[in-house]
Amino acid sequence: MESSVNPSPSNRFRALTGLARRYAALAVTAVASALASPALANTITFEAATLGASFTGPVTEDAFTYSTLSGGLVIKQFGNPGKDGEGNQTLGGGVLKIVSATGGGFNFNALDFAAFDVFRPGSQTLTVEGFIGGSSVGVDQYTLANTNDVSKGTYANWTTEAASALAGKTISELRISLTASSAGTGFTFGENIDNVVLTPAQVAIPEPSSLALLGVAAAVGASSIRRMRRRISATCFRTARLPD
C-alpha cells in the first residue's frame, strides 16, 4: 500500500512532470501577454505646424499626418498648451483630415476641445467622424459652453473629450469639423482643438521577431520538461533499487 507521506516513485514522477508542464505553460503565456500589450498612444499637438491664418498642410507629427480637407483652418497660439487648430473665421471654418503616416489603421481616443465666442452666448458642437475605405464607421459629437476668456493666453474652457461612438473602432481616416464665423456675419466664434490622441491599430499577425520569441519560450519550456523527466527517472530508479 502506498503511503500518503511517502508516495510511490510513479506518483512522484506524474506529479513533478505535471508541475514542469505548468511552469512551461506559464512561461509561454507570459511572453504572449507581453506581445499582446496595447500600442502606445500618439498625440497631435500642432506644434509641428506653422502659425498663420491659412493652414493647408500636410504636416506629419508623431506618426500621423494632418491637413485641410475643405474650407479654411488656422493654427493659433491658444492651445492647451502651445498651439492649437482652429476654424478660419473669415472662411467659415473647415475640416481637418488625419491619417496614419504609414497608411495603417488606427483608433481615435480623445482630444481637447474649446469653444470661443466673443459675445459668449450659448454653446458649440464639435463633430468628429471616422472612416475606413471611404465609408463612415461612426460619429462623435461634443457640445461645450462658449468662453470669451483668453486672459491667460489660452482659452479658459479647454475640455478633454473621450471617444464614444468611435471608441475601439479601427479607422483609416479621421475628419474633425471646425466651424467658425467672422464679425462680418454678425457673429465671431470658432471651434478649437488640441492634443488629438490616436493609437495605431494592433496587427493580428505577429511579426517574425514576435513569433521567434514565442518559439524560444516554448523551446525553453520543453527543455525544462525533458531535464526534469530525466532527473525524476533517475530518482525513481534509485528509489526502486533500495531495499524494503
Quick synopsis:
The chain has 244 residues and is an alpha+beta fold.
Question: What brief labels describe this structure?
Answer:
alpha+beta, Jelly Rolls, 13-stranded antiparallel sheet, 2 domains, elongated, 244 residues
General description of the model:
The chain contains 2 helices and 13 strands; from the N terminus they run H-E-E-E-E-E-E-E-E-E-E-E-E-E-H. It is α+β, with helices and mostly antiparallel strands. It folds into 2 domains: 9-37 and 208-241; 42-200, Sandwich (Jelly Rolls). Strands 1, 2, 3, 4, 5, 6, 7, 8, 9, 10, 11, 12 and 13 form a 13-stranded antiparallel β-sheet that branches. Strand 12 (173-181) and strand 13 (189-200) form a beta hairpin. The longest helix is centred in the C-terminal third of the chain and has 34 residues, at 208-241. The model has no long low-confidence stretch (mean pLDDT 82).
